[in-house]
Amino acid sequence: MKDLSFLLAFLALPSTFVLGQEKKDLDREAIKDLCGCYEITFEYSETFSPEKDYEKKPDYTASALELALPIIDEENKISIQHLLVVNDTMVIKHWRQDWLYENQEVFHYDKDNNWVFQELPADKVAGQWTQKVYQVDDSPRYSGSATWVHVDGKHYWENKTASPLPRREYTKRDDYNVMLRGNRHEITDYGWVHEQDNDKVIRKDGAEDVLLAQEKGMNSYIRVDDSKCAIAREWWAEHNGFWAKVRSSWDEVYNIKGDLTLAKSVDEKPLFRHLYPLEAANASVEEITEVLKRFVVPAETPVQELEGK
Question: Does 290 have pLDDT greater than 50?
Answer without folding.
Answer: yes
